[in-house]
What we know:
The protein is α/β, with parallel strands linked by helices. It has one domain (3-115): Nucleotidyltransferase, domain 5 (2-Layer Sandwich). The chain is 28% helix and 28% strand. The protein contains four helices and six strands; from the N terminus they run ββββαβαβαα. It has helices at residues 48-57, 70-78, 91-99, 110-115, and strands at residues 3-10, 13-14, 23-30, 33-42, 62-64, 82-84. Strands 1, 2, 3, 4, 5 and 6 form a six-stranded mixed sheet that branches. Strand 5 (62-64), helix 2 (70-78) and strand 6 (82-84) form a beta-alpha-beta unit. Residues 116-123 have low confidence and may be disordered.
Amino acid sequence: xxxxxxxxxYKREVAPRFDLALxxxxxxxxxxxxxxxxxxxxxxxxxxxxxCNLILTEKVDTVICGGxxxxxYQYLLWKKVRVLDSVIGPYDxxxxxxxxxxxxxxxxxxxxxxxxxxxxxxx
Length: 123
């Protein structure tokens, strides 16, 4: 089995806050290539604990997110999950850059610069 990536969503964007996201995109990258399987999971309510549980249950390797509380960030690192936080912008651009090996922690994607959405810092 290949890598699994999770991106908390808010509409078409990386959710500005990890703990307030109601949806998450899960992408599996297997032998078929990047993005071989994509699905959106809807959570019953916004909760950092539920999002962390989903990450562990789904055996996610990498989380791409906006702001995340330090305790949840450290918890995921402890569980051997790579976290690229403070990413701001459309989720599809973030995913594409990650799959190309070009996404950096704290990156503000072009679309976000144009709209003025610049609040994805770790809380």
